[in-house]
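Onboarding guide, step 5: your first structure request.
Type a short instruction followed by the sequence, for example:

Predict the 3D structure of this protein.
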Amino acid sequence: MKLLATKTAAWILAMLLAAGAAMADEGGLTPKVRKGLEASLRMDPATKALRNAIVANDAKAMALNREIVEKHNNLYSHKLDVKGITNQQASGRCWLFASLNVLRPAVIKKHNLDNFEFSQSYLSFWDKLEKANCFLEDMIALADKEPFDREVDYWMKDPITDGGWWQFTVALIEKYGVVPQAVMPETLPSSNTTVMNDVLMRRLRVGAAELRRMHGEKKSLADMRKAKDKILADVYRILVMNFGQPPAEFTYRWADKDKKLSETKKYTPQSFYKEWVDVDLSQYVDLNDDPTNPYNKHYRLRRIRDIVGAPELHYVNVPGDVIKKIALKALLDDVPVLFSADARTDMDRAQGIMETNLYDYGSMYGMKLALSKRDGLITRDGAANHAMLLVGVDVREDKPVKWLVENSWGKDRGDGGYWAMYDKWFDEHVYGITIKKAYVPNKLLKLFKEPAVELPPWAPMNAPLR
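The system replies with structure tokens like these:
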């Protein structure tokens, strides 16, 4: 009887182990699956030749669609009178360069200049300090959350990015004004921000851990803000060491394009903006094409701002064809248009071509690699990650064929710093524009007055423009 029980127990154990093994194999790369994968690949002569070519050559050069390159030209039916290519170098400040470049043509025209450039370094300094303050305030507000709460985790991963948007520029200018580049020029760290950002992130994470401990010890909000001020003093020190001290006032003298010298004049950054630019920034709005959410609605991204108390990033969501019509109307009126796009795909940096399927990896590997705009956002394959300016367009039979783009990657990339964006690339990779209200239909402007639908900070449209 005891032997029978032992055999029965062994049989049951064997059955359980077999069942467990079967369950473990389910969905796994089993020998059967691996044999199927091997059988699916036929190493015929053509496949062998392709493999030999891929392992011995630059795959990007091989995938370049020669038909597109051969048909390309740099002719445009309408071009704006723009001067000078800027260079963000090894920093993620495209949004700031593009935003200031929106304002630059009017300054050049107003003061009869050959060229002019704002100090991006000046606003970058205040942007970093303000972002640090936002992060620390958010850490105070979220101190009661679990350490791996999704929102706490989101901010801890990237406490002080270079990236931003037009609305960040507006908030900075309204608070700090602007200065010419000669007054606060670029430094090596301002143009190559990696090391500085690493130090800033470490200091802010140390500060976040301190604030969370203080909350656990039941310290008051006033005490936590005193601790925050000490952290910000360290941040300020780091920034001054890397950027220099931003001017509270400065003297400036310039020569116009006729070589006529001005008198030396004293300014504050705010008075300089008033006299030299004087553009009503409230007259610009953001329109985005976000197919992951319903169109014709007003959206707001929670905690996405660069100044405490400033409005959170918000936009009206409209289809891409509507955005394109509005951008075209502005360009034909000689108004540059800031736009956001995915700068990671189908861009030939040597010739400045932006066209879909410019690098045809699908044909090279014999498979479908295309995604819809919506699926691209959902899978994180697509994102609005770079800001540039539209400064021209080639219209044929009342339809745009390609668009002239001013980038901030210097003169050595693209066609002397300018790029040709073909219309299909616009459809697939442009996600939004910043535009004067005068070019936006009233029915869309009214949507900005409606309460905004709140989106979380990890929503697809929150991909900081760098």
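Each response can be followed by summary notes, for example: The chain has one domain: 78-455.
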